[in-house]
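Hey, I'm writing a tutorial for new members on how sequence and structure tokens pair up, and I'd like a real worked example in the thread rather than a made-up one. If someone can provide the structure for the chain below, I'll link this post from the tutorial.
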Amino acid sequence: MSRISRALFCAPFLPWAPCATAHAQTVSPIITAGADTARPDDILVIGQNKHPIAIEPRGLSVSLGDAQFAGVNATNVEDLIKYAPDFFVRSRYIGDNNGVPGFRGTHSTQSARTLVMVDGFVISDFLGNSFSYPPAWGVVSPHEVQQFDIVYGPYSARYVGNSMGGIVNITTRAPEKTEAFFNLQNFYQPYDQFKSHDDLWGHSAEGGFAWKPRDSSWGARLSARRLINQAQPMQYYQLGYSAAVYDNPTAGTPILGAVVDPKLMPATGTKVVTPVVGDYSMILSRQDQTRAELRYDQGDVHSELLFAYWWNEEKTLDPASYITDAAGNPFYGNSSGLVSFGGHSYTLNAASSFRQGLFFKNEYLVGGKIEAPLAGFDVRLNLSTLRFARQDSYQSNGYAAGLADGAGQWTRQGPTGWYTGDLLATRTIGRHALAFGVDASLYETDQSVFNTSHWREGSDPALTTRTFGRNTTVGVFAEDAIAFGDATKLTVGARYDRWHAYDGGIIAVASSGAQAGLPVTQHYAGRTDHAWSPKVALRHIFAGDWVAELSLAMATRFPTVGELFQGSLNGDGSFNANSFDPTLKPERSKDANLLLRHRFGPVTLTGSAFYQRVHNSIFNFLGFNQNGVSTSSFKNIDITRQYGVELIAETHNWPIDRLDMDGNAAWIDAITVKNPSDPASEGVAFPRIPRWRLNGNLRYRVTPTLQAVIGVRYASRPNSDIDGLYRGDDYGYTSELFALDLRANYDVSKRLRFSAGVNNLTNDKAWVYHPYPQRTFLMEAGVKL
């Protein structure tokens, strides 16, 4: 579909692009269904009113519930928010465990700028800051979610500086009555890219029960889910470019069958597009998740205990080679590492191409909460931990070693995880709504990389590198929401954070010198830093039910243990000693957000304008060394800046009865302002941030038992690198995105329902370096007893 035809197709939906956003909760009469549950102190762009928002709404705030979830083909829990305004999750396939969220002008690998919680318990992986450190979404299944709350920006003093991008809280379903439930899903994706042609299938099964005796203070809920899916290859092998080799057309083994795609990103520093010779294998993903919750409610006392365990397994055991030798035999590289094709020569190392891999990650979340009145205050205490019981990655040294269970590499993570806690006390005295609190966290990581003689088992391990470190953050905060009559509220707050990084170090086996072959240990000095972060928000209701809110804030995001201490591997498997920086400075932002909201008859509109300026942004620079091997390194960027506007709309039963529409459009300008380490990036649009995001979700109740849904998602094509040199719509780029989604829900009875849908109906091929899913079909059935 061309850009023009896309725009024409999307045009009818743009006023309602899907935000599941919905009604503002204010004293003005702009709330429809469920208005009696709305809190008059809040201004929310909100899609559901049945339950109050679970996090403090400052700036743009969104709350999504069952009405919006019914319009989503959700296979991962994060799918439920894919139509939220100016927000995205980098979800590349069903069962993707690297789903990094991002707000507005946040890069899709700046994972440490988003605070994600389940029932108030932190699941954000602040061990690092990249696609490898996503929130632990999998501890909750899609059907166990009661609501999704999203707040944009760090405008409340109650939250740590990692809320610089925004905050997400998942509220799970409480045991409200005794019942049993079961849900089945099946999905299918016909995939076609380069010479990879696969029919990919998957399914999930979920069930559980809730126990809540009548008039009892106790309740419990237990559920479990299994998901198995075949996903498209995430990467493709390309012939390596070297100027000295390229100009020697007779070097190497002659090969046939490589794919020359002129749209691909050229090799660095050249205009040479390297041919594609195969894929990294389709992914066989298996996830098991179980969740148990116990609640107690008696008068003003509420307590709950949550336990969730997530088993995650991925296999990439079938890499496909597109190429053959002159005799027509499949070719997977050779010991010389040289091949010739199309009159030129390239590199193709047999030891690092067409690898097979296994990945295992087991995580568990334990959280406890108690709320009760104490000394005139309403007090809440949260304590939780998320631990990696296992995280192991195994990879073969090439194709032949993969088949024979030969030499390879084993990466082991552990002990790894985090502990978090917070104590909040609130009280209203006259026109003052006071809040005080303290919060703390401990993040620790330890990663070892071994060479092994048998890659599947990790047998005979020989250590190559080990990195480790810890950091703690302790914060205190205070807020005062001052009511000036019924129309005006001023909220002022401040937080103070003290951060400490320690026990950081690296052990690496020396490759030369007197200590060649021996482990060499380097410890890093501990670091301590602190920050004050003031916040202020002013809300006012004008005549005619116009509602406005201005929010201002400062925030500090301290470096993660991964950015400080944990190194990564180069593309050839060697350790990249420059991939981390123990001297990184914290990110410090200045933020502003202006909201204006009004209801025009059946249409409610919200406009939002935002601004953020960040000093010392921490960014992972990607590049190539002198040998053409990919490298990455974390560095500070002196100043980055973003601003933009958002328009959000919602209608109910308009323009015809039983038709609901939600939507949003966002325009963003995000640039690098000052960056002496890379002057070419100054004034250039920040990578992976589209100029436009447009979404739309239309839900029509055809009959009392049949609902039809149309969803639209669009993002314009951004830069793929910080210097703005690479823009494209193919593998290796971050591309334009267009997805048209359809869904139908049929209620056979109050206890039985069926759904069917398709994501990306037009089969648009989009990329976030990796390929997004192509056209995918889904069928679903659910039972409640």
